[in-house]
Design goal:
By secondary structure, the chain is α+β, with helices and mostly antiparallel strands. It folds into 3 domains: 2-110, 2-Layer Sandwich (Alpha-Beta Plaits); 120-131 and 261-437, Orthogonal Bundle (Trigger factor, domain 2); 149-246, Roll (Chitinase A, domain 3). It contains 13 helices and 11 strands. Strands 6, 7, 8, 9 and 10 form a 5-stranded antiparallel β-sheet that branches. Strand 1 and strand 2 (12-19) form a beta hairpin. The chain is elongated.
């Protein structure tokens, strides 16, 4: 096998690989002999089928098999002999594969760039830290109590007011016609909770059990169902019953009901849970700062094939969001060309940061242990209360899913490594400041998760 580099343009490489006709013929003959030992043809004992007949019957398929094997070997040989690190699987094209002639292949690839990391000790970061205040604990427990309210059908025939729970059935119509998802036989509406379309709950105030109320609303322009987004709708609502919602008394019994040993333990667990949420937000902010610093401090070339793959993944999400009428408001007024330019830049940044973190991890022998993978699976399972064991069983029985946790764990370990080297100052802030700065603030009422 003769391997010759034909071109080198940036990270792109092209090689010409030639395998002699004699070598190909030898491989074909040996494979046909193996076939002859196994195949059964009428009139011939195994191993006694003439080579001419084997070539006639199996020559084309064996030839294709040998080509496929040779291509795989060519890729490995090129990588080894030329000491290159492909960014993605090389592209192999057959230039010449005629019987009696040398096999000629073209191998094209993009290689990983040489990366020289900056001095991480020169990075300066500011870590925002928030401490849980007593009022926040009280607010979280009140919200927890609110989620555990009991409803009781009122005995007297009074009119519905804010705070009541109505049991209703309704039919919604747009342009006079019922629409999909607009009908229910048994729905619960808490007046004032703001869970229905704006204006719906307010129009139920003053109704009584047995009443039929005509409710007129307008669906938001960005409503998830495109067919009715921005349109006027009318709901014919029948009130079946009115219920009062009563919050449980905040005592030891309530605490035990929600998984604590007593009220003091509930407050302690709530404080700890909130602090973990604050700390997660603090770390996310610090990590974003670090990644911004790394992105601004490194400008090495990146393989365009990797950028294309990342961009295509992003663009599929953009198209799905557009189809569902859920495109980010900041993107809604932009043309496709503007969006493509913007998100290709994001894809390039992601690839560059990914390559940098991978390089730092490899050069500093950072690895992910099986125990860390298991802990990551447990953390994922905790996101599904009541289904934790089922989620864990899924990961344990699907090695591929477990392995999918490795990249984010590896990334976090590399980030921790760099943070240890960077100079980080601390700044106390309120939770509101931390939340306002965060991309995805947590629900602080999930105190016991």
């Amino acid at each position: 096998m003769q391997i010759t580099q034909k071109s080198a343009d940036g990270l792109a490489r092209e090689f010409s690989v030639v395998v002699t006709a004699a070598a190909i013929e030898d491989r074909i003959s040996k494979r046909l002999e193996e076939v002859g030992e196994q195949v059964r043809l009428p009139g011939f004992r195994p191993g006694k089928v003439p080579m001419t007949l084997l070539r006639k019957r199996f020559g084309d398929s064996v030839r294709g098999e040998i080509l496929e094997r040779t291509i795989d070997e060519t890729i490995q040989a090129t990588i080894s002999e030329k000491a290159v690190k492909p960014a993605l699987r090389p592209q192999v094209d057959v230039v010449e594969f005629t019987e009696g002639k040398d096999l000629e292949l073209s191998v094209k690839m993009e290689v990983l760039p040489d990366i020289v990391a900056s001095d991480f000790s020169a990075i300066q970061l500011e870590k925002w830290t928030a401490t849980v205040e007593e009022g926040e604990v009280t607010k979280a427990i009140d919200e927890l109590s609110k989620r555990n309210r009991e409803s009781k059908t009122i005995a007297e025939n009074r009119k519905a007011k804010t705070g009541d729970m109505l049991v209703v059935e309704f039919v919604g119509r747009v342009d006079g016609k019922p629409f999909e998802g607009g009908t229910s036989k048994n729905s619960f509406i808490e007046i004032g909770a703001g869970r229905f379309i704006a204006g719906f709950e307010d129009q139920m105030i003053g109704s009584s059990a047995g009443d039929t109320v005509m409710v007129s609303v307008k669906f938001p322009a960005d409503y998830g169902v495109k067919e009715i987004a921005g349109k006027d709708a009318e709901f014919e609502v029948k009130v079946k019953e009115i219920r009062e919602l009563t919050a449980p008394e905040l005592n030891d019994d309530f605490a035990r009901k929600v998984g604590a040993s007593d009220l003091d333990d509930l407050k302690k667990k709530t404080r700890e849970s909130l602090q973990r949420s604050y700390d997660r937000l603090s770390r996310l902010r610090l990590k974003r700062q670090l990644l911004d610093s790394l992105a601004n401090g490194h400008d090495f070339p990146v393989p365009q094939g990797m950028v294309d793959a990342e961009f295509n993944a992003i663009w599929r999400q953009i198209e799905q969001a557009k189809a569902a009428n859920r495109l980010d408001p900041e993107d809604a007024g932009k043309s496709d060309d503007q969006l493509r330019t913007e998100y290709r830049g994001i894809a390039t940044r992601r690839v560059r940061l990914g390559l940098l973190l991978s390089d730092v991890g490899q050069k500093n022998n950072i690895e992910v242990t099986q125990e860390e993978l298991t802990n990551a699976a447990v953390s994922e399972a905790m996101l599904y209360p009541g289904q934790e064991q089922a989620v864990l069983n899924y990961y344990r029985s699907n090695p591929g899913s477990m392995e999918s946790l490795r990249p984010p764990v590896f990334e976090d370990k590399v980030v921790d490594f760099v943070l240890e080297l960077a100079k980080t100052s601390s700044k106390p802030v309120t939770y509101e400041q931390l939340r306002a700065d965060a991309e995805t603030p947590p629900d602080i009422t999930d105190a016991l998760k």
